[in-house]
Known about the structure:
Layout (H helix, E strand, L loop, with lengths): L1 H65 L1
Amino acid sequence: MDLLKKISSLQNKLIQTEELTEDLLLSLKNKEIKLQSHKQKIIELKNEIKKNVEKIDLIVKDYNANS
Length: 67
């Protein structure tokens, strides 16, 4: 009887371990998705900054040409 209880306990622990593993994998996947999203946002911001710097350069050139 004691052996059956130990087996049952081990089965429960195995199930809990599997559930925790699934939770950890899902969490990791969500963090990877969030990281990819942040990387994409950084790329977009860099491109926007580049465009704004180019606009500023044109404004400065026009100003210097008119001076």
